[in-house]
Specification:
By secondary structure, this protein is mainly alpha-helical. Helix content is 77%, strand content 0%. It binds fe (ii) ion.
């Protein structure tokens, strides 16, 4: 079972922390993806309409957060952006061939 609380590491050097900021953004991205998985699983496990509406709305917001974090990661690591775009292009080309 996962821990509910994270303990803040105050030893980080805030004056030269590009690497730490990038790594934290990647970890935050994982957290957003995990949240989407959890919300969508919970959405599938209820027939309560109020719960479904709330959970569906929250899951959509998490997807916005994914986009925001991807933007941050791309701004901190241009190679990530280039590789993302390369992967997207490869996916689109492979799927164009299949359809
Ligand atoms: Fe979020």
């Amino acid at each position: 079972m996962k821990a509910i609380f994270n303990i803040l590491d105050t030893s980080a050097n805030k004056t030269n922390n590009h690497f730490l900021t990038l790594q934290n953004a990647r970890l935050d991205l994982v957290g957003e993806l995990e949240a989407i998985v959890q919300y969508e699983n919970h959405l599938m496990q209820t027939n309560n309409q109020a719960a479904q509406a709330a959970i569906r709305d929250i899951a959509k917001e998490e997807k916005v957060h994914v986009g925001q974090l991807m933007g941050l990661i791309f701004s901190l690591d241009i190679e990530s952006k280039e590789m993302f775009e390369k992967g997207l292009k490869e996916f689109n080309e492979e799927n164009k061939l299949k359809s």
